[in-house]
Specification:
The protein has about 350 residues and is an alpha/beta fold. It is about 20% helix and about 30% strand. It has six helices and 19 strands. It has helices at about 15-25, 55-65, 75-90, 100-120, 165-170, 180-190; strands spanning about 5-10, 30-35, 40, 45, 70-75, 125, 130-135, 140-145, 170, 215-220, 225-230, 255-260, 265, 275-285, 295-300, 305-315, 320-330, 335-340, 345-355.
Length: about 350
């Protein structure tokens, strides 16, 4: 009897091709999709651009085309608590969250898997359409994550928080393909996406509705001089240049957000650069942890270029990351992920940066 694989299906190209590839390889495939929205008093809960009703209908069409069953797991409560409320609280506290990292570790690879099991679904593996690779290294007795072959689409950054147990049951078939190859595969595998747009990252259309009434406050320079007024802490992020409402003869950037006293601090491009950062909430993937300082590539945002850095322990479940060259817009709340070549060493959440000012 072939092994059974549950595929997380979002209705997009990548997850649909993932399911199709596994069907073609002879596995017993079932699809699972998550319901993340609710109706409350006739109104929908805040809904991100991903995982909405249209996505579920697209997933159903793909499953029918492949001749596989599709099961829906209602994760609206978990999504509201672990992603939406987390997103809201982080911004209210002057931080810039990464909801996709949070959703992957706690919802998609957590609640979705356990929810599927609670429906009585039995499966050997769990697969997604991420562009990354997972394997077991017997020499280290460790499950490892690696970058996808298509470096321009690599999504290993979003998976750094996965546990060894999760990776041990994980299949990532698209890690060995480029995006263009996946697009070409779709019709050959019996899938017609009918011009459907790419699956989207987390975003909320009515963003301001999450925060209710927020207070305006001063925009200061690093010396404490008032330069203007901001419209509310949740609407700013470190590194932001546009939308500050300042006219000072040179570009100014948000260098710090002090939610505790409702202050936005701005400075020049040089003032938004940092020599180092401290990260917490660590998860190690290909190594057990730090026993001594190590040199690695550090990525401070998904689209940020990897930078060489020295990583050392600096407290319980915290690391100090010293960059070889100063980095722009090191942002509290974002993930920093560490690499050795194409291998994910681990990562954590940025707490604060040391700003470099010449």
């Amino acid at each position: 009897m072939p092994e059974r694989i549950a595929v997380a299906m979002s209705g997009g190209l990548d997850s649909s091709v993932t399911a199709a590839l596994l069907v073609k390889r002879g596995y017993d495939v079932l699809g699972v999709t998550m319901r993340t929205w609710t109706h409350n008093g006739g109104r929908k809960s805040p809904q991100p651009a991903c995982c909405g009703p249209d996505d579920q209908e697209a997933a159903r069409r793909a499953a029918r085309a492949l001749g596989i069953p599709l099961f829906t797991v209602d994760l609206s409560r978990e999504f509201q608590t672990e992603v939406i409320e987390y997103f809201r609280q982080e911004y209210l506290h002057g931080r810039t969250p990464n909801p996709c990292v949070r959703c992957n570790s706690l919802v998609k690879f957590g609640a979705l898997v356990s929810g599927a099991a609670s429906l009585g679904l039995d499966f050997d593996w769990f697969a997604t359409g991420h562009y990354a690779r997972a394997a077991h290294d017997p020499a280290r007795n460790r499950y490892v994550l690696r970058k996808g072959v298509d470096r321009s689409k690599d999504q290993s950054y979003f998976l750094f928080a996965l546990s060894q147990e999760t990776i041990s049951r994980l299949l990532l078939p698209l890690g060995d393909y480029t995006k263009e190859e996946v697009r070409r595969l779709a019709p050959a595998l019996g899938l017609s996406m009918n011009g459907r747009p790419e699956s989207q990252d987390f975003s909320i259309g009515d963003y301001s509705s999450l925060f209710g009434e927020v207070e305006s406050g001063p925009i200061l320079d690093r010396h404490g001089n008032t330069l203007g007024q901001h419209r509310g802490v949740p609407f700013y992020t470190v590194g932001q240049r546009k939308g500050l409402g300042l006219s000072l003869g040179q570009p100014m950037y948000v260098t710090a957000i002090r939610a505790e006293d409702n202050v936005i601090v701005v400075g020049t491009r040089e003032e938004v650069r940092a020599d180092a950062l401290v990260a917490s909430q660590l998860n190690w993937v290909s190594i057990h942890g730090l026993t001594h300082p190590i040199e690695a590539g550090a990525k401070i945002r998904y689209r940020h270029r990897e930078a060489q850095a020295m990583i050392s322990s600096c407290g319980e479940n915290q690391v100090h990351v010293a960059f070889a060259e100063p980095q722009t817009a090191v942002t509290p709340g974002q993930a920093v992920v560490f690499y050795h070549g194409d291998e994910v060493l681990g990562g954590g959440i940025i707490e604060h940066a040391t700003t470099h000012v010449r």
